């Protein structure tokens, strides 16, 4: 019984090690796939953001000039009109910058599915060990 029991324990330990290795490989593969998708999405978002900024700058230059000219006719002061328009545009720029920083936070890169899967695997393994 001692020899047979020893062989059974060794085979169980060997099987557990094999399963743990396979599980670790699958988790790493999931992590890599998820991170690549997250980075790809981030790069695409950044490229679109830069392109939008280029077009927006051109439009803002044209609209700003027209708005200053229009406001100057109402206020009879081009300088005052430029200060008002510049102040509004500066407030908008600050708000957009803060929103952009929030949208590109590091938490958006975290591999959420991998973390959940690892937690589930740890629970299953601890149940096997205690059960």
Briefly summarize what is shown.
This protein has 131 residues and is mainly α.
Radius of gyration: 30 Å
Order of helices and strands: HHH
* Main structural class: mainly alpha
Largest sheet: none
Q: Count of DSSP E strands?
A: 0
**How many structural domains can be distinguished in the coordinates?**
1
Q: Which descriptor suits the 3D outline?
A: rod-shaped
Distance between the termini: 23 Å
Portion in strands: under 5%
Q: Which runs of at least 5 residues are low in confidence (pLDDT < 50)?
A: none
Number of helices: 3
Helix content: over 70%
Please, what is the average pLDDT? 84
Descriptive terms for the model:
131 residues; mainly alpha; 3 helices
Helices and strands, with pairings:
Layout: H1 2-75, H2 78-103, H3 112-130
Helix pairs in contact: 1-2, 1-3
Structure overview:
The chain has helices at residues 2-75, 78-103, 112-130. It is mainly α and 131 residues long. The chain has one domain (2-130).
């Amino acid at each position: 019984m001692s020899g047979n029991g020893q062989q059974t324990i060794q085979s169980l330990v060997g099987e557990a090690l094999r399963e743990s290795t396979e599980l670790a490989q699958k988790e790493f593969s999931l992590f890599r796939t998820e991170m690549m998708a997250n980075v790809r999405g981030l790069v695409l978002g950044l490229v679109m953001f830069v392109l939008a900024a280029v077009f927006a700058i051109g439009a803002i230059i044209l609209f700003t000039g027209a708005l200053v000219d229009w406001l100057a006719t109402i206020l009879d002061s081009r300088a005052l009109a430029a200060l008002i328009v510049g102040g509004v545009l500066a407030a908008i720029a600050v708000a957009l910058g803060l929103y952009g920083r929030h949208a590109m936070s590091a938490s958006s890169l975290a591999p959420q599915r991998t973390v959940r899967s690892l937690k589930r695997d740890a629970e299953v393994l601890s149940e096997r060990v205690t059960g």
